[in-house]
Specification:
Blueprint (H helix, E strand, L loop, with lengths): L2 H22 L1 E6 L1 H19 L2 E5 L3 H10 L4 E4 L8 H4 L2 E14 L7 E2 L1 H8 L17 E5 L5 H11 L10 E3 L2 H10 L3 E6 H4 L5 E2 L1 E2 L6 H6 L5 E8 L6 H12 L1 H9 L3 E2 L4 H15 L1
Parallel strand pairs: 1-2, 1-3, 5-10, 6-7, 6-8
Antiparallel strand pairs: 3-11, 4-8, 4-9, 4-11, 4-12
């Protein structure tokens, strides 16, 4: 072997070694903005401090998180919905529940309305209520902002929890591509209303309404008093080469330190409110009857 070929081979080996070493010391996360704001931003920082493992975070929504994991372009995904039962690629992934979030009703801070009922929400989303005056607000049109499509985390949760109909069309004033733009639109339009995750809403310049006179906070979500609660999942491929690292992170997220980080962000750790799961299962059974 001549000297140039030898040097070239050594460089290739060193590069390959460095790539492998680098991939062993980091994970990629893609997913919904609600999960990212709810716990992943702070949890990833803490995990890197304690383990030296970097978790690169990227948004794009729950559907992207689930499907990028399936494609192998992301190690773990963040999702505020479960897999679609008619999608084999999604069903092949593993869904680890980490926290409980809730759907929050958000309006502009100047809006005088304080409370809505579930019946009010249904009427707004189906176009039966079109003016804020009928709800105790200003004499102004109700401008409903929603997500494009029907399979986003928030959009699918609304359809399941409020309408029990995954195919229902909403009377949208405007449809936007993701949670962030919707929250920004509500923050800047006095007549706007939308539904988003409470974990994300808390960090936005919006007003959060009560639902049936109950405000969504840590205590009311944990006790199940606030009706529109839902799990947040970490999604991973059970055949991933990074599975040991992924499992290590899941263990960290469920640890006391991980749970404390979630609670500091106002999120209910999944393992600390298992009664919500039992209540959710009972509600699902009643809905099927």
């Amino acid at each position: 072997m001549n000297l140039k070929l030898l040097i070239s081979s050594i460089l290739i080996l060193l590069f390959t070694h460095n790539v492998i070493a680098e991939s062993a010391n980091q994970l990629s996360w893609v997913g919904c903005g609600v999960s990212k704001k709810a716990y992943m931003d702070d949890l990833a920082k803490a995990y890197q401090r304690d383990t030296g493992i970097l978790i690169n975070l990227d948004g794009g929504g729950a559907t992207r998180g689930i499907r990028d994991v399936g494609l192998g372009t992301a190690d773990i995904g963040g999702s505020c919905r479960y897999y679609l039962p008619d999608n084999q690629a999604e069903m092949a992934q593993s869904f680890e529940p980490l926290a409980w979030d809730a759907l929050a009703l958000i309006v502009h801070k100047s809006n005088p309305v304080q409370n809505l009922t579930l019946a009010n929400i249904r009427d707004i989303y189906t176009g039966k209520l079109t003016n804020w005056k009928s709800l105790g607000g200003n004499d102004a049109p109700i401008e409903l902002y929603t997500r494009k499509g029907k399979i986003s985390g928030v959009g699918r949760s609304i359809r399941k929890m409020i309408f029990s109909d995954f195919n229902i069309e909403f009377a949208s004033f405007k449809q936007l591509k993701s949670t962030g733009p919707i929250e920004e639109a509500v923050a800047s339009h006095p007549n706007a209303i939308a539904i988003t995750g409470i974990s994300s809403a808390r960090l936005s310049n919006v007003k959060i309404l009560k639902l049936d006179n109950i405000y969504p906070d840590y205590k009311t979500i944990k006790k199940g008093n606030y009706e529109l609660y839902r799990p947040l999942f970490l999604v991973y491929n059970p055949t991933s080469k990074q599975l040991p690292q992924i499992k290590r992170f899941i263990t960290y997220a469920h640890s006391k330190k991980g749970r404390d980080i979630m609670k500091k962000n106002g999120v209910v750790p999944y393992m600390e409110a298992m009664s919500l799961l039992m209540k959710q299962m009972q509600q699902d059974q009643e809905a099927q009857q």
